[in-house]
Design goal:
alpha/beta; eight-stranded parallel barrel
Length: 274
């Protein structure tokens, strides 16, 4: 096995399933052919929304053996809970994907601790105990709260924002992981493409980040098990795959990404969670 293949293959946490470390989100609707191409190239972590018809059709078309190779992640956003209980959302997902189980069932979009009350945590644990969910997860914008969840082993997987402009997870979340070793999925590698454009005042003699550097930055962090990519088409998907196949980002490029990311963070429009 070459160093680059070691870099690209692992597990979703020490006890989690085997994963190709670049995961796929079809949020930008790259096309069903692009989803199939991702699978052909070894991608097996799929993050799907309820309205994601492209991933839905691909998952439905897989035979039993093909389904077992996938790690399918889906779930419910916290603001939907007034309308449907988690169990109902899970049952709808099982029917939608025509599967007997969901690999990673997520409670998505937590912005503050109040968005994840004890009853929701209890519901998630009950769904896992029923056997139709193999791992429970949250996506959380509140880094300190995500660190608390990791420290007490509340969930099996954490989906967090981590990129060169947002490195706070290194102090707020990652130090808490050894207590229970949850899997970590990182998203928005390019900070919604802000790392790919020249911010005002950045010297013209200095480069900006490339998509490949952004994904390799995430994956060079040993606490990150999967980095999500959301290509707009198959060409972008294949470019991202070629880049991550190059392996870990060299130290000088990591230093550049940190310097550039800090500048982007300080000189681009601010987000609520910085």
């Amino acid at each position: 096995m070459t160093p680059s293949s070691d870099f690209l293959h692992g597990r979703l946490g020490p006890q989690g399933p085997p994963v190709f470390r670049l995961g796929l989100s079809a949020t930008r609707r790259p096309g069903e052919h692009a989803v199939r191409s991702a699978l052909d190239h070894g991608v097996n972590y799929l993050f799907a929304y309820s309205f994601d018809t492209q991933i839905t059709r691909v998952v439905r078309s897989l035979n039993a053996g093909g389904r077992e190779k996938l790690v399918l992640a889906t779930g419910a956003y916290y603001w939907l809970l007034d309308r449907r209980p988690l169990k109902k959302i899970l049952e709808n997902a099982l029917r939608r994907y025509r599967t007997d189980y969901i690999d990673v069932f997520q409670f998505l979009g937590i912005q503050k601790p109040a968005d994840f009350p004890p009853r929701i945590e209890e519901e998630l644990h009950a769904l896992r105990a029923d056997g139709k969910v193999r791992a429970i997860a949250v996506s959380c914008h509140d880094r300190q709260f995500a660190g608390e969840l990791a420290a007490r082993g509340a969930v099996d997987v954490l989906m967090i924002r981590y990129n060169a402009a947002h490195t706070g997870a290194e102090t707020d979340i990652f130090p808490h992981l050894p207590a229970h070793h949850p899997g970590v999925v990182a998203y928005t590698a390019t900070r919604w493409r802000k790392l790919l454009t020249r911010p005002k005042g950045w010297p013209q003699t200095e480069p900006v980040a490339t998509p490949g550097q952004c994904y390799r930055f995430q994956l060079s962090q040993p606490n990150v098990h999967v980095a999500l990519t959301g290509p707009g088409n198959e060409k972008e998907l294949l470019e991202n795959l070629r880049e991550v196949e190059r392996g870990p980002l060299p130290e000088d490029e990591i230093a550049f990404l940190r310097r550039f990311g800090s500048y982007v963070h300080d000189h681009s429009p601010r987000f609520r969670w910085n």
